[in-house]
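ok new one. same drill as before - structure tokens go in, u give me an amino acid for every spot. 303 of them this time. try not to just spam alanines like last time pls lmao
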């Protein structure tokens, strides 16, 4: 395919920037003194874990890396976690997120779980932890609808999506935040295909992701390797004025098309990935893949 035909297919978006060259930081507040800020983050993290230690499960072997760059003064990240029937993993994933050495708020949106997940979350809610907010939906609508609700309650400088299973490792959150904190990007995607081979990912799964990402790139002009990744981080002002219409997994191609059309600076960083199978609760299927193709075409042209 020639460059000119690519421009024609992509609707004129082929020049949307993806790899951002070094530039002066934009809208970045000068960092707080490193020592005092680091001590405060450690104290808050330990306080969170101590108060929730009876209800959460953190493996002794789960080593959390230190933060190796400075954060802007008063910086905060909002981690939005949609949850549906994740009783087997919810304690562990919450513990992993809250163990990160970051000033964060964790917004959990339960999408009307029926397997006991809501009971776990209600016990956590009773602890009144400042950095943990739990929202219970009255009916099941899907991941996109849960994220729409979570985004409305986010107050951090950066908003990041975290799944409630254990496929994505919260230790990669630090890596996702770095390009935004340093002023080099407005949106960061965590790619499962930039470094080591994804653990447990089947050839069919990789093929499907590759085809959807290629289709998305053709329509948006982006050069992503993993459009369907859960790990997406946004400056909060990027989400202002963006209405998420897709209630299920169509969120991924919808948000990708919309940020491309608004010419936001997008980059990718490599992340860990440990795939689960259908028996373990994987929820995306063929109908979602077909809907993703529709969303790629639909939202690349208009909201």
């Amino acid at each position: 395919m020639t460059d000119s035909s690519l421009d024609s297919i992509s609707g004129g978006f082929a020049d949307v920037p993806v790899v951002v060259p070094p530039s002066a930081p934009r809208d970045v507040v000068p960092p707080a003194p490193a020592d005092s800020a680091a001590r405060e983050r450690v104290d808050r993290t330990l306080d969170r874990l101590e108060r929730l230690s009876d209800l959460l499960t953190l493996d002794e072997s789960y080593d959390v890396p230190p933060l190796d760059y400075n954060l802007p003064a008063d910086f905060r990240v909002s981690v939005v976690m949609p949850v549906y029937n994740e009783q087997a993993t919810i304690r562990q994933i919450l513990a992993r997120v809250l163990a990160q050495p970051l000033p964060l708020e964790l917004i959990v949106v339960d999408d009307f779980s029926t397997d006991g997940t809501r009971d776990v979350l209600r016990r956590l809610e009773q602890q009144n932890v400042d950095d943990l907010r739990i929202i219970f939906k009255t009916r099941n609508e899907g991941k996109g609808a849960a994220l729409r609700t979570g985004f409305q309650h986010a107050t951090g400088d950066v908003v990041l999506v975290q799944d409630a299973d254990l496929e994505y490792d919260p230790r990669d959150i630090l890596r996702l935040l770095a390009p935004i904190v340093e002023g080099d990007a407005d949106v960061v995607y965590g790619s499962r295909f930039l470094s080591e081979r994804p653990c447990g990912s089947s050839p069919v799964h990789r093929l499907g992701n590759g085809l959807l990402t290629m289709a998305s790139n053709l329509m948006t002009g982006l050069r992503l390797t993993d459009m369907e990744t859960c790990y997406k981080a946004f400056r909060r002002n990027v989400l202002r004025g963006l209405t998420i219409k897709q209630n299920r997994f169509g969120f991924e191609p919808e948000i990708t098309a919309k940020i491309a059309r608004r010419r936001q600076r997008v980059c990718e960083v490599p992340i860990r990935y440990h795939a689960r199978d259908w028996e373990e609760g994987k929820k995306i299927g063929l109908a979602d893949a077909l809907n993703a193709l529709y969303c790629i075409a639909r939202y690349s042209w208009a909201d």
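The radius of gyration is 19 Å. and btw The mean pLDDT is 86.
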